Amino acid sequence: MKEEVGKRLSRDDRREQIIQAALGVFIEKGFASTTTSEIAKAADISEVTLFRNFSSKKEIFYAGIEPILLKAMDKDITPGNENFDSKQIEQIIFNRIKFLEDNRGIVKLILNENMLNQKDENYIHKMVFSLKELLEKNKVVCDEFTIRLLMGSFLSFLYQPESKEELVKEYAKRLSELMLKK
Questions:
Q1: Which pLDDT score, from 0 to 100, does residue 46 have?
Q2: pTM for this one?
Q3: Choosing a second label site near 142 at 20 to 30 A (CA), which of 32, 48, 53, 66?
C-alpha cells in the first residue's frame, strides 16, 4: 500500500486513481460492504491520502458514477436539428445499448444500490430524466409510455446481452420506427 516514491500525482489524477479503484471494489463487493480501507488498498494509497481527496465513501461513489451515467448522453445531443429522423433516434438507442454493454458492472451496481438505498440520490430517476431531456432536445416527443418502453428495452440488454452488433442495430431500428409512428 506504499505510494510510489518520487512520483507525485496531480490532485485530479489522484482523485481519478481513487475513483477507478473504488469503482472496481464497489462492483465486486457492493457499496455497503466496501470500506474506505479496501478502496485505499485497491488504489495503492494510504487511507489518509484517500481522505485528503474525498470526505467520505459516498462522495467517492457519486464522483465515480455521475460522469458515467449522466454525462454519457451528451455526445448524442444534436440541438437545433429540425429534421430529426428515425436514423438519429436509432443511433441514440444503439449508443445507449452499447453504453450499457461497456458499463455493465457500474449500471448493475447502481441498480442494486438504488433498490437498497431509496432515501439518497435516485440515479434511476436521473437516468430517465436525462434520456427524456436528450430526446426532447433532439425534437422527439417523449411521453411516459415511450420512456418506459425505452428504459425497459435498455435494461433487457443489461440482463440479456446481445453480442451480435447487427442484431442490436436491427433492434434499435425497429424501436425507433415504433417511436415515430403516430
A1: 96
A2: 0.72
A3: 66
pLDDT tens-place string over residues 13-54: 999 999 999 999 999 999 889 999 999 999 999 999 999 999
C-alpha 9/C-alpha 49 separation (Å) is: 12
CA distance 77 to 22: 30
Q: Long-range contacts: 99-107, Cβ < 8 Å, 24+? A: 99/72, 100/154, 100/157, 100/158, 101/157, 101/161, 103/68, 103/72, 104/158, 104/161, 105/23, 105/27, 106/23, 106/27, 106/64, 106/65, 106/68, 106/69, 107/69, 107/158
Supply the DSSP symbol for 3: P
Distance of CA 38 to the CA centre of its chain: 23
Residues in the chain with pLDDT values less than 50: 1-4, 6
Q: Answer whether 63's CB lies under 8 Å from 15's CB.
A: yes
